[in-house]
Amino acid sequence: MIILFLGTPAAGKGTQSKMLQELLGLPLIVTGDLLRAAISKRDELGLQAQQWLEQGKLVPDSLVIQIIMKKLQEPICKEKGFMLDGFPRTLEQAITFDKFLKEQNYKLDYVLYYNLPEQVAIDRIAGRRICSQCGTVFHLKNMPPAQENICDHCHGSLIQRRDDTEEVMKERWQAYHEKTFPLVQYYSQQGILLEINADRSIQDIFTDTVQKMHLDKDKK
């Protein structure tokens, strides 16, 4: 089985992908993690990526695609399938990915699209606080600490990341709709897109995901 994850900013697709991985036992490939792993291995592609990052530049699409395609040809992906989070991000990447799937005789089964209203997304991000010591995540409204600005676990101080602001979120939202949202229509036309309301609890979202995929929640 092959599954792609799409979602608006702050929709929680990363959390849902990990929960679905636990249920299905499929390899979960997260683009950012894969890129960091390639760099740490210091293989040819990783070294090329590192050169771009050291210059303070984004790794080019062509190089990211090469790293991903190399990973997807590993035996475990061929045998079991995989779940992909963070790629494709643009229509051009999706078209390239489709060509790769055909070449490898892969079949894309589901594209899970976690949809969240803009204002809800802004509120989620703007209210997020992270412990400066242990990294535990809190939310001022949805999951507040017992003591204001103090971590429940290690009593470290809570901070707001620089990119967890309304201004940055609005920029991310605009970029998402310009570059990534066209994928929703692209995969919908293929008949493999499942849209899921992400404005609910984590468990309710997961239950809906499992039901729409017609999976057995007891499957391990």
Search tags:
220 residues; single chain; five-stranded parallel sheet; 10 helices; Rossmann fold; alpha/beta; three-stranded antiparallel sheet; 49% helix; 8 strands
Q: Can you describe what's shown?
A:
The protein has 220 residues and is an alpha/beta fold. Helix content is 49%, strand content 15%.
Name given to the CATH architecture of one domain = 3-Layer(aba) Sandwich
- Taken as a percent bin, the fraction of beta residues is 15-25%
Question: End-to-end distance, in Å?
Answer: 14 Å
CATH superfamily of one domain: P-loop containing nucleotide triphosphate hydrolases
Question: How many whole angstroms does the radius of gyration measure?
Answer: 19 Å
Helical content band: 40-55%
CATH topology assignment of one domain: Rossmann fold
What sort of overall outline do the alpha carbons produce when their principal axes are compared?
globular
Going by helix content, strand content and strand pairing, the class is alpha/beta
Mean pLDDT value: 90
Which regions have little confidence, pLDDT < 50, spanning 5+ residues? none
Spell out the helices and strands N to C. Answer: EHEHHHHEHEHEEEHHEH
